[in-house]
Hints:
By secondary structure, the protein is an all-alpha fold. The chain has one domain (10-52). Helix content is 66%, strand content 0%. It has 3 helices and no strands. The chain has helices spanning 7-32, 36-41, 46-52. Helix 1 (7-32) packs antiparallel against helix 3. The termini are far apart. 0% of the residues are buried. This is Aminoglycoside phosphotransferase.
Amino acid sequence: MAQRTGFFRNAVGALVEARQRQVNRYVNGALLMLDDETLKTHGYDRNELKKQGGAYYMF
């Protein structure tokens, strides 16, 4: 018998997922401000970061 998750657990899970997406966009935006050589040195690709989306503000 599968265990059901409660309303609050689902709500908190959805909130955490939404916040994680927001943080990822923020970090990508910050990374996109770096020059190509620095990104390459740290293992990032500018085109891949652009595909994932970016935002320059937290809220």
